[in-house]
Amino acid sequence: MVEKPTAAFVLSLIAGILILLGGILGAIVGIIGGAMVGAIPGLGWLGGLIVALGLIGLIFGILVIVGAVMINSGERDKVKTGSIIVLIFSILSLFVGGTGGFVIGFILGLIGSILGLTWKPSEEAPPPPPAS
Fold this sequence. Notes:
4 helices; single chain; mainly alpha; 132 residues; rod-shaped
């Protein structure tokens, strides 16, 4: 049985889902707001910008979920790589992709990635010597 960093996986997965939902909400608000603001001459670009930020949040959420799946692999190198992916895109989602998963997604992604980066599988006991 392979030992896995379950807490890091669960927190990162929840963070990815929240960031994904924040991106969807941002895109919807951008579409509705863009239609309203588009009626004002010279401000049509603002709605497009909000939609683009929502879509970036959507992409960041997907990447955090991919990182969480990598954390769940249980392989030391994949866990570290997945944790770095979750860390980077959780932080970016707070500044670039909108709400950072309603801020809770950012916090959970941060904690999950730190747990994944500090995870060390327990050493297996050496096999018993052969009986003679």
